[in-house]
Amino acid sequence: MYKERILTGDRPTGALHLGHYVGSLQSRVELQNKYETFILIADVQALTDNFNNPDKIRKNIIELLKDYLAVGIDPKVSKIVLQSGIPQIAELTVFYSNLVTVNRLLRNPTVKSEIREKFADKNIPFGFLGYPVSQAADITSFMADLVPVGDDQLPMLEQTVEIVKSFNSIYGEVLKVPKPKLSKLPRLVGLDGKSKMSKSLGNTIRFADTLEDVKKKIMSMYTDPSRIHKNDPGHVVGNPVFIYHDAFNTNKDEVDELKELYTNGKIGDVEVKEKLFIALKEFLLPIQERRHSFDGREDYLYDILQEGTLFARDVAAKTLNAVKDAMKLIQYN
Ligand code: TRP
Predict the structure, then answer these.
(1) Domain encompassing residue 268
(2) HSE of 252 in the Cβ direction (CA atoms, 13 Å)?
(3) Residue 15: what pLDDT?
(4) Does residue 70's CB lie within 6 angstroms of at least one atom of ligand 1?
(5) Ligand 1 center–CA 17 separation, angstroms
(6) What is the pTM of this model?
């Protein structure tokens, strides 16, 4: 029986953090047995804004792979795929680039905010502007049904759907229209209370952080700014410490009790944070142990990547074949 497919991925530009976990990793782990799963290590996309830093990308491919395995992606079930190992994605990108305008790319909200952040002088590399097209190629090359992503990626999905519809209406119904899959918590606030946990804002807890660092980060977290004394009634809604409790503390009775005490001004921030650290330690420790178990086993990690990539290449080759046929291109094979 045909199993529906998942395609998702990350740029190998830095170790993953809790925001990635709640936004997408957790659902990938939960869904991997139900769907045929492809997880793309998007090194080509990472180069679009790191073309002058190839060492960084190379190093982070392995770090990312360790994060995947540590959180419970099972390489026997999910295919972990290196984007640059799938040349069909690059070919599809060229074909799709005719189906999108420069203005549309400039209007993509995620691209827009990245341009603001990274290319303030407006010297936008052609490749960077076009990365949503390449992401459409990622998704369609595996005929993905579902794409588990955080909410920052919704504009990419929207753009992919437009490209797919345009392709299908011009050349024939070849490509599948993918759907995004948002998790319960598609965006995690940062430690500083900013709307998003993000590497560039420096407000993350990463899987690779030591527990000492995690503790320090939690103890300096932003809480309820309107609360000055321990016996002031505190706000729980929108308070990052409680958002993290809800996301990571498996002891729901404790969380309810802490909320009650906090709302009534009967407990201090420090104690609530200490309890959060205990909960996070319980969550992170097994992940970190598994992560460390791959230290010094690079050959094993590269093998996993090669296996997933070679498998995926056959899948993408079938799609490219159908695409070229539909486009009336001559094929020599
Ligand atoms: N753009 C995603 C990010 O910045 C990474 C990515 C590349 C991706 N290709 C993808 C995500 C395909 C989902 C599907 O994290």
Answers:
(1) 211-291
(2) 0
(3) 86
(4) no
(5) 15
(6) 0.95
